[in-house]
Amino acid sequence: MLSGILKNEVAIQVSINIMRAFVEMRKFLDTNGQVFERLTNIEYKLLEHDKKFDEVFNELQKDEKQELF
Questions:
Q1: Range of 6's domain?
Q2: pLDDT tens across 14-38, in order?
Q3: Range 39-48 contact pairs with CB under 8 angstroms and sequence separation of 24 or more
Q4: Kind and range of the H or E run holding 4
Q5: Position 69 confidence tier, pLDDT thresholds 50, 70, 90
Q6: Domain total of the chain
Q7: Is the dihedral of CA 22, 24, 26, 32 positive or negative?
Q8: Residue 10 burial (C-beta neighbours within 10 Å; 0-12, 13-18, 19+)
Q9: Nearest-5° Cα angle at 22, 19 to 28
């Protein structure tokens, strides 16, 4: 868009470089999409495990309190 407004060589080169960067970014996301998906799945699993650990620790604390009385 910049090269359309500004008709000098620098503006044209900047516009071309921006388009190349977007193309490279798309290639990167395409080739690494499975990795990002796996990381997301791992993150969800960790959140599930954290919740389960919290439940276990809460139950253990309840048991400790009952033993004291």
A1: 2-68
A2: 888 999 999 999 999 999 999 999 9
A3: none
A4: helix 2-5
A5: low
A6: 1
A7: negative
A8: exposed
A9: 145
